[in-house]
Amino acid sequence: MARTFRLALAQLNLTVGDLPGNTARMVEYLHLARESGADLVAFPELATTGYPPEDLLFKKSFIDANVAAMEQVVAESRGIAVVLGYVQSRESGIANSAAIGYDGELIDTYDKIILPNYGVFDEERYFTKGRVCQVYEIGGVRVGVNVCEDIWYEVGPSAVQRQAGAELIVSINGSPFHAGKSSYRRDSIVGSRAVGHGLFVAYLNIVGGQDELVFDGNSMICDPCGKVVARGPAFREAMILADIDVDSVPPLPPVHSDGDYEDALAAVGFPKSVYVSGHQPDAERPPLCCSSNSGELDEIEEIYHALVLGTRDYLHKTGFSKAIVGLSGGIDSALTAVIAADALGPENVLGITMPSRYSSQGSVEDSAELARNLGIEFWEIPIEPAHTAFADMLEQRFADTTPNVAEENVQARIRGNVLMTVSNKFGWIVLTTGNKSEMAMGYATLYG
Questions:
Q1: What is the pTM of this model?
Q2: Which of 28, 35, 59, 148 is catalytic?
Q3: Is 322 tagged catalytic?
Q4: Active site includes 377?
Q5: Domain formed by 4-284, architecture
Q6: Of the four listed, 165, 346, 414, 433, which is most buried by Cβ atoms within 10 Å?
Q7: In the predicted model, is pLDDT for residue 257 greater than 60?
Q8: Which CATH architecture has domain 320-441?
């Protein structure tokens, strides 16, 4: 009889520091996975704390609370195995870990072995490296667990686990978005590891915005041929469910002969098998009509959805309810307003146009029409009185000088002052409307 393993990947939008909220989301999805007949449900990297927790990791009370959150989720795992990311405290320091639980008990903990220390990642500042990569028998299937960076290396923990008999790698991640990254993950990481090691690879990612980072989700499961058999959506929460035909996993491939595998083995030791749970007969689980399979977005769609999600989560997670956009009648402020309306709802966006003596009537009318089309609130606040006051105030000191960019920038500074004063008065956040080309050239007004 064919061995079928039902896997659930909980692609969640979590918040750094909100341990009660993150825990509640995981418990909710754990119950959903169990009701769906899953053998195993996985949650993302550092799911208890939210990602990235940064210097909160220096607070012992925070570490203790995160361990308690992990234990609370594991306690709910009656009849289902669970893998979830949390911070483990050890004598040597703290580790970026995955808890493996079943039937309400913590069975084992896997510590992340390869710690990234580049770009937005500075994990060597916080974590100690793991030294052991086990293989777990879950539902009759041999499963290796990786945490994010571990799966990005061809000769790394997943290679060692495969040689120890792993048939499935479950990789829990906190992988930020950039343009083109989704297809790179699919082809060069997840698909490549699946084909190279000859096993199933389940890649689970966080979704959501956190400060300056956006996480796109795009979780997926690849079979040993590199085919995506299940895929989660981009930029929204989801439960990805799939039945895996474990008997399609080929015999073990030969060990690397170039010494790389031996180096990896020396770093972590040969895995030992840890029993977690037995196989659930297919007759006892509800049928799965089809595996989750969301379509991919093209590059422009990805970028736009990332901007919308990043804006929405930044405001919601920092406690803001409404945004202000200065409208000039141009394309940059128009795009910012569209993103804000999509992210927050038009009722939560205020557009302000601030005409001066140099503004055309068309720019004012275009701003008003944009606001009507989007359904956002619209204010017109002429800045001519303030502009005149500045000119009069500086007239004597600027006498006998040639007008230059200093006078031109007065308008931008007045507009910035108006926007920030409205923000200060009502507690709404200002969204800037500059673009990256302007930033790269330094073409912007300080305080404007």
A1: 0.92
A2: 148
A3: no
A4: no
A5: 4-Layer Sandwich (3.60)
A6: 414
A7: no
A8: 3-Layer(aba) Sandwich (3.40)
